[in-house]
Amino acid sequence: MAANTKKRVAVKHIRDGIKSNYKKDCKCAICGTEDKLELHHYTTVSTLFKNYVEEHDIPVDTDEEVRAMREDFYKMYWYELVDYTVTLCEEHHRKLHSIYGREPPLHTAKKQERWVEKQRDKAEGKATKGRFASLI
Length: 136
Description:
Number of helices: 5
Radius of gyration: 17 Å
Strand content: 5-15%
Largest sheet: 2 strands, antiparallel
Number of strands: 2
Shape: elongated
Order of helices and strands: HEHHEHH
Number of domains: 1
Strand order of the largest sheet: 1-2
């Protein structure tokens, strides 16, 4: 089995074990549509997972090994996995990933969050030309 396939299967086990805790909204945080909604993690789950298993030298070659370690992983990264997320429509989610990549680097999380805020402001027709635009 290819290493990439194992990695995807392991991350799927991580997501499947915590999905019921996800806080998906009923509308896109940018445009407000209620259609084709997706949950976006500002911190990439696969990267968090990869870093965690490397830092802790944890084997994740089998389903059992992944399931055995995932509760500790959840405890360490609960905020990133459950709370630090945003609901986006399919179109805006695709646009975000076209800018930041398929697996955005962890250091781009705040930039992604600001991008969502700017897109929401644009969609709502708010001025975004500087910090004091709202005072004009």
